[in-house]
From TrEMBL:
<protein>
    <submittedName>
        <fullName>NAD(P)-dependent oxidoreductase</fullName>
    </submittedName>
</protein>
<dbReference type="InterPro" id="IPR002052">
    <property type="entry name" value="DNA_methylase_N6_adenine_CS"/>
</dbReference>
<dbReference type="GO" id="GO:0008168">
    <property type="term" value="F:methyltransferase activity"/>
</dbReference>
<dbReference type="InterPro" id="IPR029063">
    <property type="entry name" value="SAM-dependent_MTases_sf"/>
</dbReference>
<dbReference type="GO" id="GO:0003676">
    <property type="term" value="F:nucleic acid binding"/>
</dbReference>
<dbReference type="GO" id="GO:0032259">
    <property type="term" value="P:methylation"/>
</dbReference>
């Protein structure tokens, strides 16, 4: 009988090590799905841009908006996205605020990214994360005290791309057993959060 390890349950190979700095790129269609439902006005910051997968779609939807992309690590963007490297989002002084922040944060720092984003954003904060973000006593107070407006749950599996590659080491598309969602906060929103499926 095959034994399931934690990595197997998460949809990963048990022999495959976790990616350094949690670089799992967001598929283009996942970003397109949220931007068709949430309109952004004004400046946009992508603080964990990786190779620019989210930023590429942002530029397609908002070609005339100010879009700033930064990341902790220096990576070449195959999409020609200008990404400022060596920027630790949690400590970096941007010396300004942005109207909107959208990103796929390292999951282990998701709470910190959310709280930091709410401080830096004037309007919306949009995060791509595993649905397990809803769990945990440590995050309970965050949910109770932040203006979470909508959680968009993917009805089909989304397959984040390990190290930005569309295929695994065997040349096959990534397959995940995890459920992902877009979490949307909006300043001045005071109602209960809603759940929608995309």
């Amino acid at each position: 009988m095959k034994t399931l390890t934690g990595t197997s349950l998460a949809g990963m190979s048990p022999t495959r090590e976790r990616v350094t700095n949690d670089f799992y790129a967001t598929p283009f269609n996942a970003t397109e799905a949220i931007l068709k439902r949430e309109k952004l006005f004004g400046s946009i910051l992508e603080p964990a841009a990786g190779q620019g997968h989210i930023s590429k779609v942002l530029k397609e939807f908002y070609p005339y908006s100010e879009i700033v992309s930064t990341d902790l690590v220096s990576r070449d963007s195959p999409f020609g996205i200008d990404i400022t490297p060596n920027v630790d989002f949690l400590t970096y002084n941007y010396k300004r605020k942005f109207d909107n922040i959208i990103t796929n944060p390292p999951f282990k720092f998701a709470k910190e990214f959310i709280l930091r984003s709410l401080d830096l954003a004037n309007e919306k904060v949009i995060m791509f994360a595993k649905i397990q973000l809803l769990e945990g006593q440590d995050r309970l107070k965050m949910w109770e005290n932040t203006p979470i407006k909508t959680i968009y749950v993917f009805s089909k599996r989304v397959n984040p791309m390990r190290n930005g590659s569309e295929v695994d080491e065997k040349g096959k598309p990534w397959a995940s057993t995890m459920c992902f969602a877009w979490f949307v906060w909006e300043h001045n929103y005071e109602g209960l959060p809603t759940i929608e499926w995309i």
